[in-house]
Hints:
The complex is a heterodimer.
Chain A: H1 3-35, H2 40-49, H3 53-64, H4 69-79, H5 82-90, H6 99-107, H7 111-130, H8 141-165, H9 173-189, H10 195-213, H11 220-239, H12 256-263, H13 266-280
Chain B: H1 3-27, H2 35-42, H3 44-57, H4 68-88, H5 91-107
Helix pairs in contact in B: 4-5
Amino acid sequence: MSSIAHHIRRALPYAAPIMAGYVAIGIPCGILESEVGIAPWMAFFLSATFYSGAGQFMLSNLWLAGQPLFAIAASISFVNLRQLLYSAAFAPRFQKVKRWLAALFALTVTDESFGVNTDRFAQTDESAILGGEADFHPWEAADATCVNLLSMSAWATANFVGGLVGSTLAIPTAVASFAMTAIFICLLFGRTFTPTTIVVGVVSAAMVVLMKAVGLEQPAIIVGAVVGVAAGCVFASLTRDRPIVPEAPGEALADDETYAAHLLDADRLEAAEEAVGEDER
Amino acid sequence: MSLAEFGILYAILMATMAFSRCVPLFALRGRELSAQVVAVLDLIPVAAFAALVANDLYQPAAWTTGNVWQALVPLIAAGGVVVLARRTGSLILCAVAGLVLYLVLGAIPL
């Protein structure tokens, strides 16, 4: 089996839920794009390169609303600023990865693939510390990139199909998009919380609700996330909650194990160690 | 939308998207990151997911239509997904169950 096939086979089970959701949402997106004069091949090209669900829905809706071209570009670009956060979050993972692979990965990150890959990398960290199952394979940059590309192929194909079938196929977007919401909920609540991460989550969510309530919908996600991270930093500094305040502040992370240990929250580690102890008994 | 208009829009969007997706990753590449920086970066996933979930679940317009039940449907369905996520952690189960729950609740004529 070739190396690429190996990585695709590893990525596919994790990409599958995203791909299913993208097919459900991508077809209505393609239909909407066809309504503003974007041909199926253009929809495919846009989806395979620009690759932004929210951005593409916005593009069609703003065009239908008669917004000027540069206003549309500015609005969508502003909403997509949250990608800055995702890119920064992945930076430590891609320190030693080949440039072309890092670029390909970075260019194909979406909200959903960010979540799945973050989760897989966290599992790898946990396994590195606790000693995972014998057949556990660490999540690699190539696996993460395959998740991105598989998801992108589903999205682009669905947009193309949506453009072809036009309005003959009626899929309620609100219902289909709730599958994506459910994936975000799973990624958020499937993890173990520390006091700091609870503060981060609550403040981020509250900030989004507040901004949307006062009519500031477009910057709500990026501002909510940034304020949430800032609140978490302040909280951790005040309470000295782990892992935001390391034992030796400012100390550089020397190796992968130190880095992995740092990422793994203390509560989860303790719970896992207790479980291992019980098994041994 | 003409091909020329599409081309201009595409060029601007690709440039800004590539900037957002690539610059932080490459700017931090090759640098030894302090533990504090890594710890701050580690908070981003929770913040992003919480913001995305809140953004999806809270639709101000839904509360102004007068049909409170329809506004509550995504919140109740989300509650069910939270329980499932805590118990199973399965993405596919959560996606399917969330979709079914949303459809069933939405079909109740209240």
